[in-house]
Amino acid sequence: MLTVLLILIPFIAGLIAFGLKGSGPKVLGMIASLASVATAIGTVCTLQADPKKLSFVTNWIPQLGSQFRVGLDGMGTMLCLLTAIAFLLVFITIYNRDIERPNSFYGLMLLSQAGLVGVFTAFDALQFYVFWELALIPVYFLCSMWGGEKRIPVTFKFFVYTFLGSLLMLVGIIYLYFQTPDHSFSWTSFTSLQLSMGDQKWLFWLFFVAFAIKMPVFPFHTWQPDTYEQSPTPVTMILSGVMVKMGLFGVLRWLVPVLPEGASMWTDVAIVLSVIGIIYASCIAMVQSDLKRLIAYSSIAHIGLMSAAIFAHNEQGTQGVLLQMFNHGINIIGLWIIVEVIQNRLGVKNMDQMGGIARKAPRMAIFLVIISLANIGLPLTNGFIGEFLMFSGLFQYNHWFMAFAGLGIILAAVYTLNMIQKVIFGEGNTLTDTTTDLQPGETVALSLVVIMIFVLGVYPQPMLDLVSKAF
Amino acid sequence: MNALISTALSGVFLMFVGLFVRNKQHIKFFAIAAIIISFIANLALYPTVQLGGYIQFGMIEVSKFSVLFNAVALGATLIYFLLSGSEFEKVGEHVGDYFALIFFILAGVTLASSFSNLLMLFLAIEIMSIPQYVLAGADRKSLKSNEASLKYFLMGSFSTGILLMGIALIYGAAGTFNITELGLGADPVHPLALCGIILMAFALAFKVSAVPFHFWTPDVYDGSPTVFTSFMATVVKAGGFVAFLRMFHVAFAGGAISHHWTLILSIITAATLILGNFSAVFQQSVKRMLAYSSIAQAGFMLFAVIAINQFATQGIILYAAAYSLATIGVFAVLLKLKDYTFEGFNGLTRKQPLLALATTIFLFSLAGIPVTAGFFAKYFVLSAAIQHGHLLWLVIVGVLCAAISVYYYFRVIMAMYFKQGDPEVEPVSGGFKVALVLTIILVLALGLFPNLLIGCL
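Output (structure tokens, whole complex):
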């Protein structure tokens, strides 16, 4: 039942939030996200003790053979934990902000949380699809209502892209459904299918495009920098911290186990696309002057590495990806919190207008440096161990792929250090002189991030144990 | 059978009500009572057909399918009366007659869902069409309405002629009018029968406004009084589809002959999907956009006609319900606005949040987004096509077009929620709001539990 609770808490809280006024929604949001974190920790403990308790099955549409079937393994638990933590961090950061129409804002945020958890817990393909869309729609409204100047066309592009991908996946799901002997959508029926090579060859693309758009992998990424730039920063945190993991999760949960031969057939293509993404996005990140776009491109590069490592298809690579999904989520949210703070104080995103913030806001500067270093995978931070495993996985598959992907590390160091230099060091100007240091809420959120960075960096074993618990 | 009798009698009754009752509001209540009685009378047959249908007089087949489809058509009309019934009096003087004509159309629709004889098919199509020609021209003072009526009448007459010609050729080939005894599924294909089938396919494609027989649709829908457009585009169109589906599934399925018409209909479907969606993108008025979107939706319903399987039959019923509810709902909101362009919707959420929310949910349903009825409607017709096996290219075309459709449906949503404006909205009564909420609940209920409807089949 804990698993169902994970979906129900944000869903019901989200519906209630629409009807609240004043500071009601943000208090409710905080309570709901604390409850979600507590429940997620509960699922981690239950997974150690009795994993069967985390499964729940009931009839949904018997005529179609579709059931409401939720469950959690190590990967699902980790992602639900990440989701819960991410929303908590976001709500803590924005607690003191004035948001227009807070009831709709918090309502939509919580609904998208319910959708995300639904995706990570679904073991029925139709249910997976429904939640996949459900997570997207609130985000569409969030970006379009609270975003930047060009938000309407940009968010629309994002929506059409992902919707098209989802529809292709739906076609694949229906096709697989007809192949199952018992006509069911359950994950076990799907994974026990003996599909012919000819089928796997094209079915792979129906699923891959849907997941590649979400991650995003080159050349399906064009929606992402614009959307990250135009979205309100709390939503960008969710998009980049959690939502892109939906694509990686989809590959790990549905694509590789259901279409193993299809996946191995197109491995090289998928890895080449991912590696192109890494280098291409890193190069663009180096010449960005817009802070939000820079982080958006750095995110494409990081996700590219994860997607390449998944397709390397060996244990180390997969372990690295699982670990890195959590770590990348935490790190990128940390970065966005700082961007949010800077934007809140200065009102600009252009790095040329910044500088010298370290003197005015030393605490923020320290946090930015730590999180940036974790983001480029410095040893002792959480980013290191995940990247190490991924590179070693990729190395086992093909030296050349690893060599090219490795260029990403060097480029990441270049643009990250450049960003730190431009944003917090150097000479201040009249604008940056007005900066104030972190407020208590922001400090709490960033401290949590930094604690996780160091704990997981020094002692990643518990997380490795968790993610290696498969079904 | 019950539905046919009760709708026909209700039509006659309302003509007399129109003569004797002066208060137009009262006429509406009579109409609502009549539709509820017809709905119940129709459902009363359900227990008797639960184990299997039967044929009456060799002309009409009463089956679970027909009873369920009639229930959908009558239920959608009830929602239509509740939402838009008060708008009838704004069209012209003869409110009673308009209601009567609607009931006559319904008689045609119920006949279309249960004919078992080619003559009954012809009668069904005609009974559905003729009152529509009158309704299209109901606004006598408007030149556009007159033009719509004339255009519709002329084009409709041509297609009826083609249909009759097709029926004659098929009779010539098979020697019977009974659709279960035509025996055209067996090889080899009689050339006369093939010509007949092609003519029938064209005539029915005209009735459901499939490309390239769609040219009348935007002009007629745009010119007709808006309140009647929503009925024409939904219940009547669903009636056309059900006739189409019955004819091809019962009479022309199997053997070499189905290869011939499957190819023709596949091409028509692809053209309908592509043209309908692309044209809808370029419209400036929401009403015309909905006219083109109805062409696009027809493309999806054609999937069900081509794929002969259980999913197709379930799909057409679910599609009829989902599409009718959503379109009637959107039109009901449209009627409350003064300006039918996209800009007319700007900022609607600030002025009338319920109207904006309802429109959003209906448009989600039309676009086929999960937890609305439209998702499962699309799901079933796509499933039918995928199960058929040879139509995967068509499915991919359909999916790409569905992604395009998001563009024009979401333009309305963007206008309502993200743009500034002060739309002129007519006063909205409490009863209207209740009916709107009821429609929203139905759309969501079918979106979460489609087996409420298809479970009965």
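Chain A has 20 helices and two strands.
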